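A brief tutorial aside. Many learners find it easier to grasp structure tokens once they have seen a single protein encoded end to end. The record that follows does exactly this for Nuclease. Read the sequence first, then the structure, and try to relate runs of similar tokens to stretches of the chain.
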Amino acid sequence: MKNKLFIFQFLIVLLISTGLQAQTYVKVSKSASEEFIRHAGFEVSYNKKNKIPNYTAYIHTRDKELKKVTNRTGSIFVKDPDTSAPQAANADYKRSGYDRGHLAPAGDMRWSFQAMKESFYFTNTAPQNGTLNRGEWNKLEQMVSKLAIKYDSIYVITGVIIENDGKYIGDSVKVPGFFYKALARKVNGRVVSMAYLMRNKKPAKDDTYNHSTTTVAVIESMTDSKLFVNFKKIDKGNKNFDWFNLNH
């Protein structure tokens, strides 16, 4: 009996030490290529076939947002040393017309030197329209940071939606058709959620991130995945905008 207990404990330690612990946020489509990687500030589901992430996820808190021990100055995009899978490179993005778009934003990783460094791994980037990346998407990221300050903690999942459109850059790096950001928070003993969905193109002048609200249920349908599986009960069918409102 003692030997069986020892073996069980050894296996648990082995799973944790090798990064094979169960994903805490998303169950991706069975058809999606996935390598699960846990970094200091976020977890990533990496798709080696497309050379971009399926999603990244983390909890952003008031303490992390206010800590700010570092910034992105001097940071460079490099390959992730925690995987041997094929990855994109800077050369793939050169003259491609696309930015190296963060999924887990560097702005939310200023609380840790290690987290900031890892946010610039290519396992955390995907080709993103430059106007979108530096405009409405950036405003959305800043809004999420403000939500963390107001509500103490926000669960954040950022992912891509792939289309069979044949769009690639460089050496077979897939260009996503959409980017999404799903949010969840605990309210009075329950969990509410909402999401944002943006097409990967230059937004129209009057097309702000507030016009891109949707539900987590819609994102699940489009990706054939399950989000926020870490919660037993969560409202996924409503936008719940009032629970993520900076003006309340």
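Self-check: The CA atoms of residues 78 and 121 lie 5 Å apart. If you spotted this yourself, you are ready for the next section.
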